Amino acid sequence: MTSFWSVWVVVLTLACLAICFGLLVWNLKNYAGVKEGESCGHEFDGIEEINNPLPKWWTYMFFATFIWAVYYLAAYPGLGNWEGLAKWTSSNQGVKSLAESKQASLDAKAAGETVQLDTEIQKAEDRFGPLFESFAKRDIIDLAQDEQALEIGQRLFAQNCSQCHGSDARGAHGFPNLTDKDWLYGGTPDKIKETLLYGRVAAMPAWGPALGEQGVKEVTAFVLSLSGRKVNQKDADAGQAKFAMCAACHGMDGKGSIAHNLPFGAPNLTDNIWLYGGSQRAVEETLNNGRAGVMPAWKDILGEDKIHIISAYVYSLSLDK
C-alpha cells in the first residue's frame, strides 16, 4: 500500500472512532430542556416520549467496544501500513516459490512473529500427522479398500488436484480422466505414486515445419484410421509412410508407450480416448504445434504420507466396483 492510501486509511479510521466517541459522550448529557424522567411533550397514538438517559449496560458496552477497537488497531495490522504491536500477519507476504515460503516461515518464527497460516498448518500437522503416518505404513492396494482412508484421500484430492482433474476426477481438455483405465505412465499403485511425487513433463514435438500442410493432413488421416474412423484412404496410406517419425514414442502400431514399455507417456492412438480432442482439426493442431502438458511434482508440497493416501484414492477410482 502506498503512503498516500496508508494515510487515507489511518485518517478515516481514527476519524470514525473519534466521531463515535463524541456521539457517545454527547448523548450522556441532557439537552432536552426538561428533567430526566419527565415528558418531552411528544405523544403519538398513546405513546409518550420520556426524557430517559441511555441504559447503563448499553453505555458500558459501548465504552468497552471502543476500548477494544483502539487496542485491536494498535496490536494488529489494520491502520494502513501499520504492522501492529503483536507482529501478527495472516500469511508470509511476497513469497514467489515454495522455498521462499518455507524460508519466510522460519524467519518469522526466529523473529518472534505470529503468522496465522503457519500456526494453523502446524496445528493441523500435530493433529492429523500421526494419522497420515499410520496410513502411509500400509500398502496402497490395502488402503484402496479402506473407507476412512478413501474419505481422507478424496478430501486431499479435492483440495489439491480437482482444479485440473475436476472434483469427479474425470478430467478436462488437456487433463487426463483418472476414472478409466487409460494411463499415459502406468496405472499401478507404484506408478501413480511416482507421478504424484515427481510430476510428469510431456513433450510432443511440433511436426508442422517438418511435414508441411499436406503431410500433416495425411498423418492425421492415418492416425484417425487407427481408431476405426472413416478417412480418405489415399491420405491415410501416404500418412502411414510418414508415421515412422512418430513410432519412436507411439510404436509402429500406434498403441503408445504403455504397450511398448516406454517411458515417454505417449498415448494409445488406436482407442477413442483423446486428451486434447479427437476431431480432425484437433489432431492437426497437435501435429502442427505439438503439446507440452505438465503435471507438477507434489512431494515438497504435500509430503510423502499425504501423497500415499491420495495415490490410494486415485487407484481406487479405476477399480471395478
TrEMBL record:
Signal peptide residues are none
Q: Name one GO molecular function term.
A: electron transfer activity
Transmembrane ranges, per UniProt, are 7-26, 57-79
Question: Which intervals hold domain Cytochrome c?
Answer: 148-227, 234-318
Gene3D superfamilies on file: 6.10.280.130, Cytochrome c-like domain
What GO cellular component term, any one, is given? plasma membrane
Q: What are the alphabetically sorted keywords of the record?
A: Cell inner membrane, Cell membrane, Electron transport, Heme, Hydrogen ion transport, Ion transport, Iron, Membrane, Metal-binding, Oxidoreductase, Repeat, Respiratory chain, Transmembrane, Transmembrane helix, Transport
Q: Please describe the quaternary structure of this protein.
A: Component of the cbb3-type cytochrome c oxidase.
Protein's name according to its UniProt entry: Cbb3-type cytochrome c oxidase subunit
Q: Which organism is it from?
A: Pseudoalteromonas tunicata D2
